[in-house]
Each structure stands twice: as C-alpha cells, then as structure tokens.
C-alpha cells in the first residue's frame, strides 16, 4: 500500500509530464495499443468512479446556496469557450469540418476530474470544484451531444442518442454510484476507499490516454504546417479558458479560493472523455485536436498556478 501511495504522489507531482509521455507512448506503440481500444470505455468508467468516490450529494447543496459563480462557470465552460473554438476553427480552417468538430469537442466535454488535484494543492474551494465536476459529469450525456449538434451538427453527422448512452455508462452512472456509496457510508468511504483507489485511477488515466493516442499516431508522425496551426489554435483557446475563469471570478468579486477554483474549473477539460467519444463516433481527423490537448493542459495548469501564487499568495495564511 505504501508503494501505491508513493506512486500516486509521484504521478500527481509530475502530472504535467505524465500525460504528454502517455501520448508519446501511444504514438510509438500504436500498432500494439490500437488492439485495446475496446477496453477504453470500461477503464474510463472505472476512472470516473475513482474520481467521484470522495464526493457526496451534500457538496452540491452547499454550493447551490450561492449558485452565481457555479452558473457563470458552467456558462463559460459550455457556451463561451465552445463558441470561441467553433469561431476560431471556422475562420482558420475553412473546408475542414472534422478539424472544427475536434476543436469544439475538446471544449464541450466536462471539466476535468484532475482539476480537483490542482485546486487542493493551491488551496481553492474543494466543494465548489467538486460541484462543477459532478454537475458537468452528470449532465455530460445530454450537454455534449446537444452542444456538438448545435455548433457543428449542420456540417457533421452526430449520433446523439448513441453518444448519450455511452456517456451515461462512462460518466454519469459510475459517478452517481460512487456518490451514493459514499453518502450511504456517511462519508467514511472518502477516508477509507478513496485513498486506496487514487493510484488505480491514475493508472486508468494513463491507459486511456496511451491507448487513445494510438489513433492519432499517423498525424503525429507526419506533422505538417496545417497540424502545427491546429496545435497552436488549441493551445491559445485552452490558455484562454483558464484566463476567462480567473477574470469571471474577479468580476464577481470572489475571494482567493473561488478564483483558484474557477480558473482551473474553466480551464481544464476531461480530454479522455473527448478522446473516447471521438474514437467511437468520428473519423480520425476529429481525434487530433482533442488528443493534442494532452500535450499542454497540465503544463498550462502549472503555469496558471504560478500566476495565482504570484498575485494571491499560496493561501496558507488563510488555512
């Protein structure tokens, strides 16, 4: 158990490098890993369960008592940034509907579970972050397909019903199950089971990223000017997501802990979920903009974390 705990802490410390490394592994061993694509939805469901087992329905209730920051965050996550992604893709890459679809898909998926790790390290509001993740997770089966249909449905065929079903099985069902079990245990499951599952959740994340990356291997191995331009556009939009969360928190005159939570909540996306959906329902061209986000999401999180410390301190003085 001590070995697993050390492994979990190591992965958390080096998360900014782990996901790009997994992407590289997927590209280098694409021929072998591509045979395991069928297991990804099941591994992802387990990952969702691990990430949600420390949550309770009461966490939502407390945040709902002051819902404005939550509503603003969800509006930024599911409308403002996807709208910007769609506009940028349409403007920069006309005639490439699948590239635009991948750009939009990357930014309509739920807020990343791993954002809670960054919020915990930099002393943000854990209940607020959990609320964003849980609501995003629970509504993902509806929001993701409908958002895709709204933004790119006229150019790309979206199997809304099948996508809803897959997201429900991968995201909503395991999240509800984990929360219900923790609620039934009176919250003790968070102390007993959550630490034990944490390293296995990290392993699941590494498997999902590595296996899904095998599908974009042909693009990574043959990078050209167009793909570099797509990468630059994705980097810019992703960086803007963090900034918008930060700005909205400041405009709402929130304290440091909410600024931290809204920054990471609006900036970080569940790329693995987007990759699973892209692999299951779209051509390989859609996968590239989604998976390329693994190269810089954690790096951007580390960059904004340092900016937050510079402007607001570590938060230890308020602990």
Automatic annotation (TrEMBL):
This is Bile acid:sodium symporter family protein. It is found in: Membrane. The chain crosses the membrane at residues 12-30, 36-58, 70-93, 99-121, 128-151, 163-182, 226-252, 259-282. Its main location: membrane. The lineage of its organism: Bacteria, Bacillati, Bacillota, Clostridia, Eubacteriales. The keyword Transmembrane helix applies. Keywords: Membrane, Transmembrane, Transmembrane helix. Signal peptide: none annotated. It comes from Caproiciproducens galactitolivorans. The keyword Transmembrane helix applies.
């Amino acid at each position: 158990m001590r070995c697993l705990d050390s492994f979990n802490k190591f992965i958390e410390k080096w998360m900014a490098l782990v996901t790009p490394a997994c992407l590289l592994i997927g590209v280098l061993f694409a021929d072998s890993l591509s045979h395991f694509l069928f297991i990804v939805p099941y591994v992802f469901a387990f990952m969702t369960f691990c990430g949600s087992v420390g949550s309770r329905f009461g966490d939502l209730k407390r945040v709902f008592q002051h819902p404005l920051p939550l509503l603003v965050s969800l509006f930024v996550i599911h409308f403002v940034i996807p709208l910007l992604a769609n506009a940028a893709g349409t403007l920069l890459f006309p005639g490439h509907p699948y590239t635009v679809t991948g750009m939009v898909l990357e930014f309509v998926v739920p807020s990343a579970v791993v954002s809670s790790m960054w919020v915990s390290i930099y002393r943000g509001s854990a209940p607020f972050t959990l609320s964003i993740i849980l609501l995003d997770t629970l509504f993902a089966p509806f929001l993701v397909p409908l958002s895709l249909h709204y933004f790119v449905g006229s150019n790309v065929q979206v199997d809304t019903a099948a996508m809803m079903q897959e997201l429900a099985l991968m995201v909503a069902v395991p999240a509800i199950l984990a929360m219900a079990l923790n609620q039934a245990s009176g919250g003790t499951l968070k102390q007993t089971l959550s630490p034990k599952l944490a390293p296995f959740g990290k392993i699941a994340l590494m498997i999902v990223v590595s296996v899904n990356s095998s599908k974009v291997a042909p693009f990574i191995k043959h990078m050209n000017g167009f793909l570099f331009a797509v990468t630059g556009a994705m980097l810019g939009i992703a960086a803007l997501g963090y900034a918008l969360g930060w700005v909205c928190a400041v405009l709402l005159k929130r304290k440091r802990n909410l600024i931290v939570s809204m920054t990471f909540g609006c900036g970080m996306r569940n790329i693995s979920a987007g990759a699973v959906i892209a692999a299951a329902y779209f051509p390989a061209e859609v996968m590239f903009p989604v998976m390329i986000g693994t190269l810089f999401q954690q790096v951007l999180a580390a960059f904004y974390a340092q900016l937050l410390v510079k402007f607001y301190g570590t938060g230890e003085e308020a602990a």
